[in-house]
Amino acid sequence: MRALEVYLLTGRPLSQHFAQTASPIADFQVVTLGLTMARDALRTRVVRRVDQQFAAGVVGEVRRLLASGVPESAHALSGLVYRQVLELLKGVRDERATRDLVVQENMRYARRQAMWFRSEPVTQWIDGPGESSTAIGLALDLVRQRLTGWRALAAESAVPIEK
């Protein structure tokens, strides 16, 4: 749909726009890091997050949005949690079943994300949550290794790298 919108507005296909677009980070060396986590640990975190969302009043938030005139068909209400809360408010399932469904849908989404990111060939993977000191240390080590390699390559090719 976005490609069609761009074509209708500009008369040029999206591929032409991409071909003429310069990368805003072309002068930077990028280190792509990804975090992985055991499925059980991820599920524990997802359950905790869903519990926090319900405790923070996501059901009331959806009620207020609907009462203020936001239509159920609004794009923002089609996302994870909101879609299931709409069904809860319609009586499709009770709160416990809704929470369970939100957890299940989040786990499916995480699996799809993991599959997509695994196809990225340059991503270096770190096992553990991003806030753990072990993961942070590994990330710093990987970045330092990459910087050392780039500096050595630059010295060999006489291409200066700014500090």
Provide structural commentary:
With 163 residues, the chain is mainly alpha-helical. It has one domain: Crystal structure of tRNA isopentenylpyrophosphate transferase (bh2366) domain (Helix Hairpins, Orthogonal Bundle), CATH 1.10.287.890. 61% of the residues lie in helices and 5% in strands. The chain is built from 7 helices and 2 strands, in the order ααβααααβα. It has a two-stranded parallel ribbon. Helix 3 (39-55) crosses helix 6, helix 4 packs across helix 5 (82-89) and helix 5 runs antiparallel to helix 6. The model has no long low-confidence stretch (mean pLDDT 90).
Multimer state? single chain
Give the class from helix and strand content and strand pairing. mainly alpha
Distance between the termini: 43 Å
The CATH topology corresponds to Helix Hairpins
Radius of gyration from the alpha-carbon trace, in angstroms:
23 Å
Describe the main β-sheet briefly.
2 strands, parallel
- Along the chain, the helix and strand elements come as HHEHHHHEH
Indicate the CATH architecture: Orthogonal Bundle
How many separate domains make up the residues? 1
Could you name the CATH class? Answer: Mainly Alpha
Q: What is the fourth-level CATH superfamily?
A: Crystal structure of tRNA isopentenylpyrophosphate transferase (bh2366) domain
User: What is the count of DSSP helices, taking H or I runs of 4+ residues?
Assistant: 7
The neighbouring-strand order within the major sheet is 1-2
Proportion in β-strands? under 5%
Q: What level of helicity do the residues show?
A: 55-70%
- Write down the overall geometry: flat
- Tell me how many strands there are: 2
Task: Please mark out the parts with pLDDT under 50 across 5 or more consecutive residues, or reply none.
Answer: none
Global mean pLDDT: 90
